[in-house]
Amino acid sequence: MIFTFTDEQTELAAILRRFLQDKSPPSEVRRLMATEQGYDPQTWAQLAGQLGLQGLVIPEKYGGSGAGPVEMAVACEEMGRALLCAPYFATAVLAVHALLASGDQAAAEDFLPGIADGTTIATLAVPEADGAWSTEGLQTRARRSGDGYRLDGRKSFVLDGHVAGLILVAAQADGGPSLFAVQGDADGLARRRLETLDMTRKQAVLDLDSAPGRLIGAEGGAADVVTRTLRQAVVALAAEQVGGAQRCLDMSVEYAKIRMQFGRPIGSFQAIKHMCADMLLEVESARSAAYYAAWAAQDGSDELPLVSSLAKAFCSETYFRAAADNIQIHGGIGFTWEHPAHLYFKRAKSAELMLGTPEEHREIAAGYLIDRSAGPA
Amino acid sequence: MEPTGSSVRQAARDWIEENFDPQLSLRAWLERLADSGWAQPAWPADWYGRGLPPDEAVAAYEEFNRVDAPGPPAGLGVMLAAPTIIANASDDLKRQFVRAVLVGDHLWCQLFSEPGAGSDLAGLQTRAQRDGDEFVVNGQKVWTSGGQIADYGMLLARTDPDVPKHRGITYFALPMNQPGVEVRPLIQMTGESGFSEVFFTDARVPASAIIGELNGGWGVALSTLGFERTSLGTATGLGFRLTSPGGSRFLAQQEVSVGEFIAASRANARSYGVGGTAMTAGGIVPLVTLAKGLGRDHDTEVRQQIVRLYTLASANTWNGLRAGARLRAGGRAGPEASLGKLMASRIGRQWRDTASLVAGPEGMLAGEDGPLGGRLAMQVLATPGPSIYGGSDQIQRNIISERVLGLPREADPSRTMPFRELKVGTQMAEAGTAGPGEAS
């Protein structure tokens, strides 16, 4: 039933929140964001071993728990709230959905169990220099070579690409844009971590020089796989944005109650109260949008292409505004490196621009709402 | 899994099957509907309702709307007066007023705001002084929607000026059709007249018509304002799509048969998706049509703003669904339930700005010369209303920040002073301390 969480889903949120309070407190976020690999291998293993989260949407026959987009939204909301530093989104959302969407059973059998048990970090490499999540005009080429393929080109904006053991690369083959599995330690693959605005989520640039790749699905199948993967991914990202935005609201309200100026809490001034009220309106509305999109994904609704983009655009702008307003409410302390507010600001800005900007997603929605709508009634 | 309210739907369908008869007079139908509890399924079962949770009530309404069954007269009687009376008044008053609202004997207006008491409603000056079994009312109200046609008014009047402002107010059901009540229509900026000023000169109201306790009117007023906030913020029409005429001035209109009434209403139905429905997700339809007609549907900014409008309207609908789901699951209404009114005025502004963007220079034209046959101009001009009436956006933000987020109250030294010592409305002028341009 839409908007009604099951006991299991509610329990998942509660367990994960406790886990993250323990494993991903602000001090740990700061420690990990300053490391080269950007995550803690022990926490990553526990995330898989204790909570089974890497395999959340992996079918049971491949070692996962066979849950759906609603559970994934619940998990991502908590991770967004805690700013978890881990290659989770790249692995459990992007790579898993791409493998499932490819319909390649052999690849699913070969790769998904390793992802589910936490052994494999995986990612999806679609964008090139222009950052577009599109398979049109790919410069990266794949050519047949013996039993397999060899890839040449440069992939950029690859989430956790510097640590992934399995990289799903979109490349132009004879039969059209296609997806290939490239091992992280493959010959001919050079990778470099990029310096990112959001230090809590790493990105990399990959240079492929005749790197060996295994075709996933059929030649020419990548366009459909990427489109379907993106719809699932932006729903998960929208939920993650809601989690972060809620944390910003909570921080603002907590601080407004204790910060005294002119002999009273600043939260008693309407200038501050009204900012908080507007923030609540936007965060709650963003939450409704993200959940609605998650249920549309869960139900396989034909609304998903529209509402996933609506949710991504709205949650992106809501998160960034909440993160910016949170700094404003905190005043000078909110602008310091010491205070956590900037970590959310950076995550919010980066997530807003990731997987399509709000403008791009509204343009997708316009295609459904304007171009495909019936003419004058 | 069962669809929402499937058993309720079946019950409503069965009742309609047995009772809905286009041959009945509208009056007879309204009586049948009121006595069955289906006129207001969410009201308590003891008082002409069926005690259903909101989402099941919505499901029931959908069944009635399927056959275009006419509901009770729309307006403040059903929306505010009856719910307030059910929640606060004596059984005698409930018997006198609740059913009368549902069958259309009485139309109501709200006598709250005054020239000197808007957002600070508790500063109201209209006096009610005891005279035997009655109270004598003197003063002035303003922004009274439907004042010209109302049979009764929800009156807030000061009954004790010697205590702090919130503690000396009484809530009355005041008969409007009497010599001491004068209603003067006000013209709003759209050129229409939807509200009025109401002057009381020794108007009389029986002591038995007090809703709640003497001097206990503020708490009752808050319950009315709560009903107002919820209904103004509701994104989707919770109720009958077709409503009946009512009120003592229009009772003759209830003599037509239900069938004739439905046929006439369908004939009158204006093209869909403009005006009042601008605040629903359907609100983009006229703008898309207009954009296509003007060849602006490929303009990047137009497309972005139309989608923004659709997103806000959808989010408001989803907030409502989520609030309903929580109630249904036995939980308390979450914060999303109190946000609808603020969201509705934001949606209205987005509609206005998008409409102006789409219309371009045509947005300067109104009436027959204007876009959408003048309806665009009317809607653009109507936009300031929702962010003012029923508690302004600023007051809504105070309420949300204090009651939902738990932020401290704004300091208000006047809360604890006797009303008589406050500078409010004309009381300020009498004290000779009014500043220039203030109360006249």
Describe the structure.
The complex is a heterodimer of chains A (377) and B (440). With 377 residues, chain A is of the alpha+beta class. Chain A is 52% helix and 16% strand. Chain A has helices at 7-23, 26-33, 41-49, 69-82, 88-102, 105-116, 222-258, 270-298, 304-330, 341-353, 358-371; strands at residues 122-125, 141-145, 148-159, 166-173, 176-183, 189-194, 203-216, 260-261, 264-265. In chain A, strands 1, 2, 3, 4, 5, 6 and 7 form a 7-stranded mixed β-sheet that branches. In chain A, strands 8-9 form a two-stranded antiparallel ribbon. A 4-stranded antiparallel β-sheet of chain B has the order 2-3-7-6, with no helix packed on it. A 3-stranded mixed β-sheet of chain B has the order 1-4-5. With 440 residues, chain B is α+β, with helices and mostly antiparallel strands. Chain B starts with 5 loop residues before the first helix and ends in a 10-residue tail after the last helix. Chain B contains 13 helices and 7 strands. At the A-B interface, helix 7, strand 9, helix 8, helix 9 and helix 11 of A face helix 8, helix 9, helix 10 and helix 12 of B.
Summarize the structure.
In chain A, 52% of the residues lie in helices and 16% in strands. By secondary structure, chain A is α+β, with helices and mostly antiparallel strands. Among the domains of chain B are: 152 residues, Butyryl-CoA Dehydrogenase, subunit A, domain 2 (Beta Barrel), CATH 2.40.110; 135 residues, Butyryl-CoA Dehydrogenase, subunit A, domain 3.
Strand content of chain B: 5-15%
Largest interface by Cβ-Cβ < 8 Å: A-B, 45 and 56 residues
**What is the second-level CATH architecture of the largest domain in chain A?**
Up-down Bundle
Largest sheet of chain A: 7 strands, mixed
Helix content of chain A: 40-55%
Please tell me the CATH architecture of one domain in chain B by its name. Answer: Beta Barrel
How do the strands of the widest beta sheet of chain B line up side by side?
2-3-7-6
* Number of DSSP strand runs of chain B: 7
CATH C-level label of the largest domain in chain A: Mainly Alpha
> Could you say what the CATH topology of one domain in chain B is called?
Butyryl-CoA Dehydrogenase, subunit A, domain 2
CATH topology of the largest domain in chain A: Butyryl-CoA Dehydrogenase, subunit A, domain 3
Number of DSSP E strands of chain A: 9
> So what's the CATH class of one domain in chain B?
Mainly Beta
* Overall helicity of chain B: 40-55%
What would you report as the Rg of chain B, rounded to the nearest angstrom?
A: 23 Å
Low-pLDDT regions of chain A: none
Q: On the 0-100 scale, what is the average pLDDT of chain B?
A: 88
Structural class of chain B: alpha+beta
